[in-house]
Backbone:
């Protein structure tokens, strides 16, 4: 079975500062990895995904993430935070083979951007 | 393209009452998912449909929860009877078939059980 751990349930950064949200996964087979963002009272929106190929993945709104197999990590970064980035972020893993291919989410990281 | 539609957006009921949620996926998406998101947690899959068949319902509390997708398009999720711990946001998502495919989420139904 696969699992996801997001380190830090709350992260605060100043506007213009680097955003780093941490995600570690556990999977017995090669994983597909996703970052979703959730704004208040809205559903989840995909930021980016890693399936195969290039390990550095670029997403929407200036976010990117790097798949590091040796560290079983998929951390989300953005060079310069904007006020509009304030939201909850979820990392998710899905195994790439077999019958049980459900999406398993981490518990989320609430990002606050300070003026 | 229209997104995943869910209704109602909010529902307040008393424990032991029944409630139903409706979801209409993106047109053409064969796979439909229902998730439960408890406050402070990530979404947890309740049930996955492929067309009108159930693929995975291993985490669905079948003594009180039921779901159907009779015509392979829209779906309903029912809770009968509701418990206090069922208070959560119920999210519906849909996708094309295949593990690489993105799941698109609706805005959810926020259920409060008093």
Residues:
């Amino acid at each position: 079975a696969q699992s996801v751990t997001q380190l830090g349930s709350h992260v605060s950064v100043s506007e213009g500062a680097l955003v780093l949200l941490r995600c570690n996964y556990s999977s017995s087979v090669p994983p597909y990895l996703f970052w979703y963002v959730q704004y208040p009272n809205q559903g989840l929106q995909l930021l980016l995904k890693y399936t195969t190929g290039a390990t550095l993945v670029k997403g929407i709104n200036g976010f990117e993430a790097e798949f590091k197999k040796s560290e079983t990590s998929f951390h989300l970064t953005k060079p310069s935070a904007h006020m509009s980035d304030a939201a909850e972020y979820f990392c998710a893993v899905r195994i790439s083979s077999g019958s049980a291919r459900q999406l398993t989410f981490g518990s989320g990281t609430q990002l606050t951007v300070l003026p | 393209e229209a997104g995943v539609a869910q209704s109602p957006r909010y529902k307040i009921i008393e424990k032991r009452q029944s409630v139903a949620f409706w979801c209409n996926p993106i047109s053409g998406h064969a796979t439909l998912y229902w998730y439960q998101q408890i406050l402070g947690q990530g979404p947890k899959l309740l049930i996955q449909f492929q067309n009108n068949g159930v693929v995975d319902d291993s985490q669905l509390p079948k003594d009180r929860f039921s779901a159907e997708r009779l015509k392979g398009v829209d779906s309903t999720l029912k809770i009968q009877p509701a418990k206090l711990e069922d208070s959560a946001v119920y999210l519906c998502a849909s996708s094309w078939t295949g593990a690489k495919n993105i799941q698109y989420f609706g805005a959810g139904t926020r259920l409060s059980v008093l």
Notes: Chain B has a mean pLDDT of 92. The interface with chain A takes residues 4, 33, 40-45, 48, 56, 91, 93, 99-100, 102-108, 110 of chain B (CB under 8 Å). The two ends of chain B are 37 Å apart (CA to CA).
